[in-house]
Amino acid sequence: MEVYTLPDGTTVSAFDQFQIGDQKYPPGWLLHAPAADLAAAGITVTTANDPPPAPVTVVSSLDFRALFMDSERTAITQAAESNAALRIFIDDAASAGSLHLADPRVTTGVASLVAAGLITQDRADQILAGVPPAAPSSQP
Fold first, then answer.
1. Which of 29, 76, 114, 123 could potentially form a cystine with 25 if both were Cys, beta carbons 3.0 to 4.6 Å apart?
2. Three-state SS across the chain?
3. Strand pairing class (18-20; 11-12)
4. Which of 18, 135, 99 is CA-nearest to residue 90?
5. Whole-number Cα distances in Å, 23 to 20, 37, 110
6. Distance CA 68, CA 75 (A)
7. How confident is the model at residue 79, as a pLDDT?
8. Where exactly are the structural domains of the chain?
9. Which tens digit of pLDDT belongs to each residue from 87-127?
10. Could you give the CA distance from residue 48 to residue 101 in angstroms, rounded to a whole number?
11. How does pLDDT run across 41-63, given as a tens digit for each residue?
């Protein structure tokens, strides 16, 4: 993303209308102006990093399952055989179609997995942020 700085230190986007002294520049002028015209007007151009992508807030039921490591899914499935509350949570998550990771039903369900010792709080935070588990490192 390019950032345009006017001689007075003001930054503008390529689509802004702006004025330098008595000279008015129309919206979009910066998109087509030659470098020599920018320099003559005292406009500097810098490149800024694009903002990070928006956090994941909604996932499909299948993508929600993929946020857990294989070992965690196995442990959760085994624990749900004797824990009705866990069974209800994983059944509801599987049948939801999509899950809002900030939904209280999801956050409470993930918290119950932490309370049951099936995942750590760090993993719960990653899951609720939509961060998939790190790929296992390959051993030589």
1. 29
2. CEEEECCCCCEECCCCCEEECCEEECCCHHHHCCHHHHHHHCCEEEECCCCCCCCCCEEEHHHHHHCCCHHHHHHHHHHHCCCHHHHHHHHHHHHCCEEECCCHHHHHHHHHHHHCCCCCHHHHHHHHCCCCCCCCCCCC
3. unpaired
4. 99
5. 5, 13, 59
6. 11
7. 97
8. 2-47, 58-128
9. 999 999 999 999 999 999 999 999 999 999 999 999 999 99
10. 31
11. 999 999 888 777 777 799 999 99
Structure tokens at 119: 């995942």
Structure-block tokens of residue 56 = 């994941």
What type of residue sits at position 33?
Answer: A
Cα separation, 99 vs 133, in Å, equals: 18
pTM: 0.61
- Whole-angstrom Cα distance, residue 85 to residue 114? 13
Burial class (CB in 10 A: 0-12, 13-18, 19+), 45: middle
Contact between residue 103 and residue 124 where contact means Cβ atoms under 8 Å apart: no
Encoding tokens for residue 11?
């930054």
Chain position carrying tokens 């994983």: 90
